[in-house]
UniProtKB/TrEMBL annotation:
Organism: Achromobacter ruhlandii
PANTHER family per the UniProt record, alphabetical: 1,2-DIOXYGENASE PROTEIN-RELATED (PTHR41517), CUPIN (PTHR41517:SF1)
Protein name: Cupin domain-containing protein
E.C. number(s) listed in UniProt: 1.13.11.4
Keywords, alphabetical: Dioxygenase, Oxidoreductase
UniProt domain Cupin type-2: residue ranges: 108-174, 280-346
Family annotation (Pfam families): Cupin_2 (PF07883)
UniProt cross-references to InterPro entries, sorted A to Z: Cupin_2 (IPR013096), GDO-like (IPR047183), RmlC-like_jellyroll (IPR014710), RmlC_Cupin_sf (IPR011051)
GO function term, MF aspect, one: gentisate 1,2-dioxygenase activity
Gene3D superfamilies recorded: Jelly Rolls (2.60.120.10)
Amino acid sequence: MEANRYDAYREDTAGRANVADSPERIAYYQDLARLETGALWTVANKIEPWAPRSASVPVVWRYQELRGHVLRSAELVSPEEAGRRVIYLNNPGRRDVAAAVGWLYSGLQVMRPGELASAHKHSHSALRFIMEGKGAFTVVDGHKMTLGANDFVLTPNGTWHEHGVAEDGTTCIWQDGLDIPLVNAFEAGFYAVHPDLNQTVTHPVDDTSALWGSAALRPQTTGWTKPYSPLFKYEWEPTYEALRRHARVSAGSPYDGILMEYVNPATGGPVMPTIGASMQLLRPGEHTKAHRHTGSFLYQVAKGSGFSVIDGKRYDWTERDIFCVPSWAVHEHANLSSSDDACLFCFNDLPVMRSLALYREEAVKDNDGHQQLI
């Protein structure tokens, strides 16, 4: 990728236009500051950059390093005390807003058999991706979904929801993904606890899968008009089989391998207005070419092991690890296995990028489409 001709200019001016300081100008700026104002040319390149400059940095959160600490939280606090026992992921560049990447939040939540968290709702959209354990369930507006490993479930904004683990289950850990930083940046966040603390299940268990889970069929008379998917649960087995079928008949993307987006079956659009999700398959030995795009991406390794090169640095990952790709960071992925697939679950802010006409993509053209390691 060719160096941007403005790179040196940006570094030299450090966020301001090409206006040198002088005693008279500095005094002027101080006068403006006392009036809670400022001269645009002193911050022009900072607030209107030539290209996106993410404050987030690439990070790999290694599951085997975190797992013991997540389990330890279940010994230290109860669900009643904590509300939700979650170890959240903190990007070093976004500590001020507790974000994993960009305006996306993520954390690892643990629940023991027989535990049930209180029902609540909020302005933030959320999803859960099951990492380990048996017997997990979620209730969303009276719909109960049973959950297994690599399933993910939606708890859209404004819906009553609660999570638990069956008495005969095992300790469960899942990844939470929310748009908390984004909604808070808009200063639009509300939170409420259910007046009865828990919901009544008012529909047959797993009814949303029965109604909406057929990939090529849509129920005729549902009257669904809400802005999020009515299929609250997306199961791993049919997802993986769809990827494998796709791989048998298509080369896929040179930049993402075999990638399929989870969609709202009522509209064909994203699962929620502010959060998109996908699963991608890297064939044995596959190494994608490099590209970059706007939008923040948080990956969890659902299957296999490999590495990603992000802005010239290699990051190795294995099953259950989580890693992020900040907006406009150059990235490529590789499957280390010569005999088995690798699969990456991802949630992102693409619905926001696309709806606001901010999505932009660019491929690496040099070095046969790959990055030079630094």
